[in-house]
Every structure is written in C-alpha cells, then in structure tokens.
Amino acid sequence: MLLPERTAKRSELSGHLSAWRLRQLRLSAGLVLVSSLAWGGCAGIESPGWMRSATNRVQRTFNGEDSVPISAQEREERLAKARIHWQVGDEVFRGATQKPREAAAKDFIQAAKQFEKAAKAHPGSAIAQDALFMQGESLFFADQLPKAEQAYGKLQKQFPNSRHNDRAAARLFSIAQYWIETERAGGSKIMPVNFVDSKRPWFDIDGHGIRVLDQIRYNDPSGRLADDATMAAAVEHFRQGKYADADEFLTDLRETFTDSDHLFNAYMLGIRCKLEMYAGPKYSQLTLDEADKLIRQVRTRFPDRMQEPATRDTIAKAAAEVDFRKAERLYVRAQYRERRREYGAARLYYQQLLADFNMTPYADQATTRLAAIEPYPAIPDRPLIWLTKVFPEAKRVKPLITSDSGTVLR
After folding, report:
1. Start-to-end C-alpha separation, the chain
2. Whether 173 contacts 228, CB under 8 Å
C-alpha cells in the first residue's frame, strides 16, 4: 500500500501531466491549422494526406463536433443523455404554453437551458438540430430576443440545410423588425444604453436589426424571406440617410432576386438613392448615369406600372431631375472655361447643353452666353508675349559646331 502523502503527490503529478498534454494538443492543433492554411494557399500543391486528416479533425473540433471517432456504445450514451434533457425541456415548454405569457417566462427560460444541454450532449446530430431550434423558440417566447437571435443564428451556422431554416428565418425577421420599429418610434432617445429591457440589445438597436436582416439573406440566400430581408434592410438604411448602403442592398436585390415581389420598388427606390448620392456638379457624373439607366429599365420592364399616373409622374420627375443635374454640370464647366478666357471650350459646352438638354432652364442661359462670347477668340492671346523676345531663355542654348562635312550641328 502507498503512503497517503506519496499518493497525493502522484495525483498532483498526474494532474500536471494532463494539463501539459492538453496544452501540447492545443498547440499542435493550432500548428496544423496554420500549416493547412499555408498549404491551401498554394494552388498547384496538394497537401499531404496526414495533414488533410489532421486539418479535418481540427475543423471538427472548432465546429463543436467530435474531434475523434466515437464508438457505437458512446454514441448511444450521448444520445440517451440528449434525449433525457430533451424530454425534460419539452415537458417544461409544453407546461409553459398553458400559462399566461408573463407567468410562463421563467418556465420558458428553464426549458431553453434543457434544450441547450441536449444540443451539447450529442453535437452534430438530428436531436441537436431540433434542440437548438427549440432553445431559440423558448427564448423567443420568454422575450429574451437577443439570446433567441443567437440561438437561431447558431442553428443556421451549424446546420445550414436544417429543416427549421424557414421557421428560424421567420423568427429572426420578426425580431429584426421589432428592433427597428421600436428604435424608429424613439426607443433609445432617453437612454442610449439599454440596461432594463431584455427584448432589445444593449445599444445600436436598429443596427442590430439590420445585421440580423443581412444575416438572413447570407445564411439562406435561396430562402423564402431572403428578398424580404434585403428590401427591409435597404429601406432602413434609406430612412437613416445611408444612401450608399441602401443602394448596395437594392442592387443586390435587383441582380439576385429577379422574380421578387419587391423588384419594382427596388428600382424606384434605387433611382432615388442614386440621385441622393450625387454630390454636385464638381464631382463624378456616374450616379446620374446609373439613375438614368434605371429610369430606362423601369419604362421597359414595367409597362403595366407605367400606366399608373403616380408611377408615370414619379418617373417623369426623376428623369427631369437627371437632365437638370447634367445640364447644370455642363453649364458649370462652360462658366469655368469662360472665366479662363478659353472661349472655344466654353462654346463647346454651351452647344452640347443646347443639343442634349434644351428643355432645362440652363438652355436659355447657354444661349445668352453664346451670343456674349461670339466675338472673342477661341484661344486667348498670351499676355506680354513680346517680353519673350526681349529676354533670353532660362535654359542655355548649345553652341553651333561646324563639322568637317560642312553641316551645322547643334
């Protein structure tokens, strides 16, 4: 028999060795991951088989899956443990649904804890998939919306093709809309940081709502709510005056969801975004050209909507605004050339303005200016040009050298 002191020392030494082995395992996993990334960056080189298998084990570990294959007996034990937690959570959840909303909040939170344990007991399995969804549902009905959003997001990340994708996306969409609507109604004007309401994030509530909408279309781009989330995010960005961000979402909707019910609104709001993004006559004309292109596409692709008086008037006003801005650019450029006495260039800009935008108010001004600069030369005379003949050039001229052949060389 070992003495108690010696037994204690051996136990302590064994614990130190276990911790040391764990640190070595983590270091090895990190080195394998870095090595695999380095090998993956070389397009023409295939990584060795041992490295691919090690990389797969590391990736499974980081994703919450089993790092090593488990036996059938261990799998059954994990499944049995997960089922126990699932049954407890399901009973608590069903009992909570029979109570009033306020009284059932604690029960829903307790059910969420049981579902979380069930998902952790057997990760990567079908019961874990259902448990993550029910964890989100429990937190949703407990009005713990930020935590519910995290649970639904974890479900979509670990199970991209889950059978709960549509229902989870619907929950996420309603959560995002709730955050955006409450913020739009002035939810954080009194207190910028939220310490009391468990339904909303701590800060930047509408920003969190937009992020959730973006995550819906990113996680499931072919889902039923992908185009709805894209349009809702674009509208919120537009409301906040972030026209470049709104235009990015609207462009994505027009190019990706060509059969969406929001397609017409994406074109109409996109035209407004382009006009709002225009910085003035001294900056690029690209957004005006893009707005003009969208106007032509609306007239071509939506002839039935163009029969409506409201749509027809809106498009006509947008087209007139585009023409006005382009005529303004030409007039400003002509004025600049005229101030520099470059009357030939100024005439070209005025003439182009009259040819392309003769229905704008700048057409009359261009006609007046053309008549005023008619007698002036196209290129201004150089002032005091006779001084260049009086004073020598600053650069010394090389002397003339006569060659043997009689030619003069410089």
Report:
1. 112
2. yes
Per-residue pLDDT of the chain (410 residues; tens, 9 = 90+): 434 444 444 444 444 444 444 455 444 444 444 444 444 444 444 455 545 555 555 455 444 444 456 788 888 888 899 999 999 999 999 999 988 877 888 999 999 999 999 999 988 889 999 999 999 999 999 988 899 999 999 998 899 888 898 899 999 999 998 888 887 776 555 556 655 566 766 666 777 888 989 888 888 888 888 999 999 999 999 998 999 999 999 999 999 999 999 999 999 999 999 999 999 998 999 999 999 999 999 999 999 999 999 999 999 999 999 999 999 999 999 999 999 999 999 999 999 999 999 999 999 999 999 999 888 888 876 665 555 666 666 666 565 555 555 555 45
Q: What is the pTM of this model?
A: 0.69
Angle at 106 between CA 102 and CA 110, to 5 degrees: 150
Q: What are phi and psi of 409, to 5 degrees?
A: -115, 150
Question: 23-44 burial string, b = 16+ CB within 10 Å, else e?
Answer: eeeeeebeebbeebeeeeeeee
- Give the contacts of 393 (CB within 8 A, at least 6 positions apart): none
Nearest to 159, CA basis, from 146, 149, 168: 168
Rounded to whole angstroms, what are the CA distances from 265 to 176, 221, 254, 332?
A: 21, 20, 10, 34
Is 113 in contact with 129 (CB distance < 8 Å)?
Answer: no
Residue of 285, 351, 297 whose CA lies nearest to 322: 285
Question: Which has the closest alpha carbon to 280: 335, 326, 340, 348?
Answer: 326
